[in-house]
């Protein structure tokens, strides 16, 4: 009965039945008993999922829906929205992960019994696992106060108790207010700086608000009336000398990252929770949660700013091993998961979006045994960890925020290096990170390049240099992280424990490792260059010049009127002694490639009457055993190269990595056909010997044909037809998604398939030659411009 609350759109009905949206429209017109809309709009109605499934089953039109798709539809169509549904699903998956017998007992009866038992089980089982009893004041809460310069409660158990009350175990009184969140951390990446944050999120250097209208709402806010448990609010800490009243306003208090859902909420979500449990039995609880979160992120690409796994790993490498780590803008916890685990490790997290803070805690809890204390709230206005002194701070803060608290935080004690201007929100985050470090601790922040050179921040940059707090600035290649059109920077800072004798700063520019097209940077080269330079610099305190890549610069040389820290402005150009010879070699390769392109140019097209073949679909072929269909995963063996959707689109070698997990990765084999399913475009790639053995990445579908029935090149060629892709695609407001099962191809004898396959293979060779010629041409033109302008190439 409760499943009636889950709604599905016409596109979802089409996926359930394995047909096009036009067929769904026809059914609505022709069948009087077709379910009536229960929501949505007149032009885009939604229907009760249970009623639709019953009607399709009655008509014999219900295709065999994969379990993953069914659970995703239940989550995406949840009446309270996908994020609250995802958080509740995470509660249950964590319960299944920790105490599967409790779930088995609770799920044995009706949905009402399930909801009633779960409501207590989440408290009685999960909370002891995460840190302490609900409703008990934390020891040391009053001593730590609630947010330096922010006042208020540092963790309010509003709504019936927070999962993860760890403050009672914290001798320093960190995460005050009775909920320190002892949850577990892991080692995976896919970071989010959500559009649900305050006004601007990682925008271009010119401030431009992102999703400013979305005000963060508490997770499961309805649970405020669920229980008679007291809401514990820690006494406000005494204001710093000279602090304004606004800086201690209780309204700015941080809140608990997790709140126990009520019985009615669990009842409403019961079908989803049962489906998620089935998914966990099939693929594991942590993999099930990663899959659902990944689908949500893919379906809402404009709401979130993702930090690539490779970048998170690089930041963790620069910080080094640590027992206590803080991420004050945690998103979904990718930076904390990238930290190498160690015994007794404690991870601290905070995010302004309650849903993201909750998701972060759940993901971390499902991935390791480390302790995590997390909270939801505006970190700059309501710091949930005011007494913390961490070994490491990792942070990907929101960029270009004007409303970061400039007016109310004017006298905050964190501004040790100067009060940031209204336009310098990133320098506020830098100083917050330094304030939360222990002496000698390291902070690594992702920064917009403008923060290194804006005149409004030069005094703070100068003080960071004079006192030895800023140790390195690393310019990343274009395309390393959103926004992809600018080269972001990494700032490596250390809280000074003594004045450096001859202070120097490491400057690194990895722009030369930018990738081509959508493939992203050469992360292996970036990581090797940066970590090698940083390691040599930290050992010796200086670094010999590496032309065009890295050098250490005396602080005194940077303390001019601008205090410009952009690495490219202080590094000598790369050695160009053999520049002309290199350009000659590029020109020769380009000439050979152009000649090959001419040879591979297809012959004139022979006209032919329109063919009327009998057609079949990929779904029918998969059901008949003519091919095997697999989808890319979210984890696996991290040392195996990963074929990404960008690699397939750009025709490049496998370039990705996946976080380590227990999920069994899908390995490609020569002759497989790989198809991207997000973003539109008619693309299909046949895996060759060089690519075989790579892991199939996310947003990719692999088709493994039975060679006795299907020719791989014939299959790939027909899948690339524009009309074929159009009829098999569904369109959301922000993305196009391809339903590979609906792609069509003709039923032809194997010999005839091979004739077409040979022609498709020749077209593929021609396409690859064109790509290579384009790359070499761009390289030659860029090299000629550089050589002529730096004097290494003569003009005539």
From TrEMBL:
List the residue ranges of the region (Disordered): 173-243
Q: Which residues form a coiled coil?
A: none
Q: Does the keyword DNA-binding apply?
A: yes
Any one Gene Ontology molecular-function term assigned to this protein's record: N-methyltransferase activity
Give the Low complexity compositional bias ranges. Answer: 223-243
Give residue ranges for domain DNA methylase adenine-specific: 288-569
UniProt organism field: Streptomyces argyrophylli
The name of this protein is N-6 DNA methylase
Q: Give the superkingdom in one word.
A: Bacteria
Keywords, A to Z? Answer: DNA-binding, Methyltransferase, Restriction system, Transferase
* Matching Gene3D superfamilies: DNA methylase specificity domains, Vaccinia Virus protein VP39
Q: Where is the composition biased (Polar residues)?
A: 203-222
Quote the InterPro entries the UniProt record gives. DNA_methylase_A-5, Restrct_endonuc_typeI_TRD_sf, SAM-dependent_MTases_sf, Type-I_RE_MTase_Subunit
Q: Name one GO biological process term.
A: DNA restriction-modification system
């Amino acid at each position: 009965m409760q499943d009636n609350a889950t709604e599905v759109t016409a596109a979802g009905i089409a996926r359930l039945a394995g047909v096009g949206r036009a067929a769904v429209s026809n059914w609505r017109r022709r069948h009087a008993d077709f379910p009536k809309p229960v929501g949505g709009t007149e032009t885009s109605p939604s229907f009760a999922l249970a009623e639709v499934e019953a009607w399709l089953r009655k008509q014999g039109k219900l295709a065999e829906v994969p379990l993953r798709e069914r659970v995703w539809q239940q989550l995406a169509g949840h009446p309270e929205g996908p994020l609250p549904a995802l958080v509740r699903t995470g509660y249950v998956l964590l319960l299944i992960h920790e105490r599967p017998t409790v779930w088995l007992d609770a799920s044995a009866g009706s949905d009402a019994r399930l909801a009633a038992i779960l409501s207590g089980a989440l408290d009685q089982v999960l909370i002891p696992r995460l840190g302490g009893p609900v409703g008990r004041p934390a020891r040391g809460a009053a001593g730590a106060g609630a947010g330096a310069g922010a006042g208020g409660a540092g963790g309010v158990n509003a709504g019936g108790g927070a999962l993860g009350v760890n403050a009672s175990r914290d001798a320093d009184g960190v995460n005050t207010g009775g909920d320190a969140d002892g949850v577990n951390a892991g080692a995976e990446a896919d970071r989010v700086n959500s559009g649900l944050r305050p006004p601007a999120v990682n925008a271009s250097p010119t401030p431009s608000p992102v999703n400013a209208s979305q005000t963060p709402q508490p997770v499961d806010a309805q649970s405020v009336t669920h229980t008679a448990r007291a809401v514990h609010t820690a006494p406000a800490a005494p204001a710093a000398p000279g602090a304004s009243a606004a800086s201690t306003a209780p309204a700015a208090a941080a809140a608990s990252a997790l709140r126990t859902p009520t019985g009615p909420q669990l009842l409403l979500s019961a079908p989803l929770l049962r489906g998620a449990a089935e998914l966990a039995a099939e693929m594991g609880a942590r993999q099930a949660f990663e899959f659902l979160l990944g689908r949500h992120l893919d379906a809402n690409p404009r709401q979130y700013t993702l930090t690539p796994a490779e970048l998170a790993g690089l930041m963790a490498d620069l910080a080094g091993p640590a027992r206590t780590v803080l991420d004050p803008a945690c998103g979904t916890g990718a930076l904390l998961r990238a930290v190498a685990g160690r015994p007794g490790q404690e991870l601290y997290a905070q995010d302004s979006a309650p849903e993201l803070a909750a998701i972060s805690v759940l993901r971390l809890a499902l991935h390791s045994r480390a302790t995590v204390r997390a909270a939801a709230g505006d970190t700059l206005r309501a710091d949930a960890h005011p007494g913390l002194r961490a070994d490491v701070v990792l942070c990907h803060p929101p960029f270009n925020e004007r409303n970061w608290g400039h007016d109310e935080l004017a006298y905050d004690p964190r501004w040790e290096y100067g009060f940031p201007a209204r336009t310098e929100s990133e320098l506020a985050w830098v100083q917050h990170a330094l304030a939360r470090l222990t002496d000698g601790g390291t902070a690594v922040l992702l920064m917009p390049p403008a923060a290194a050179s804006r005149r409004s921040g030069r005094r703070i940059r100068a003080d960071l240099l004079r006192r030895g707090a800023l140790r390195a600035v690393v310019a990343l290649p274009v395309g390393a992280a959103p926004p992809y059109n600018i080269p972001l920077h990494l700032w490596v800072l250390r809280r000074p424990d003594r004045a450096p004798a001859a202070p120097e700063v490491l400057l690194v520019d990895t722009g030369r490792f930018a990738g081509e097209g959508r493939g992203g940077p050469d992360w292996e080269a970036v990581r090797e260059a940066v970590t090698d330079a940083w390691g040599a610099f930290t050992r010796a305190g200086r670094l010999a010049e590496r032309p065009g890549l890295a050098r250490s610069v005396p602080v005194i040389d940077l303390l001019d009127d601008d205090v410009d820290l952009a690495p490219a402005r202080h590094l000598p150009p790369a050695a160009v002694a053999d520049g002309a010879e290199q350009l000659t070699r590029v020109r020769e390769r380009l000439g050979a490639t152009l000649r090959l392109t001419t040879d591979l140019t297809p012959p004139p097209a022979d006209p032919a009457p329109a063919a009327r073949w009998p057609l079949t679909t990929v779904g029918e072929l998969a059901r008949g055993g003519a091919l095997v269909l697999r989808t890319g995963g979210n984890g696996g063996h991290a040392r195996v190269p990963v074929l990404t959707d960008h690699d397939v689109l750009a025709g490049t070698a496998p370039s990705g990595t996946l976080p380590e997990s227990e999920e069994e990765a899908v390995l490609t084999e020569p002759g497989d056909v790989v198809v991207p399913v997000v973003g539109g475009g008619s693309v299909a790639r046949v895996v060759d010997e060089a690519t075989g053995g790579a892991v199939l990445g996310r947003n990719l579908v692999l088709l493994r044909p039975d060679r006795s029935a299907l020719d791989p090149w014939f299959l790939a060629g027909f899948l690339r037809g524009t009309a074929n892709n159009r009829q098999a695609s569904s369109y959301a407001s922000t993305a196009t998604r391809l339903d590979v099962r609906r792609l069509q191809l003709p039923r032809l004898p194997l010999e005839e398939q091979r004739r077409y396959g040979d022609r498709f293979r020749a077209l593929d060779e021609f396409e690859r030659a064109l790509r290579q010629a384009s790359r070499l041409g761009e390289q030659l033109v860029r090299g000629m411009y550089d050589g002529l302008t730096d004097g290494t190439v003569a003009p005539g």
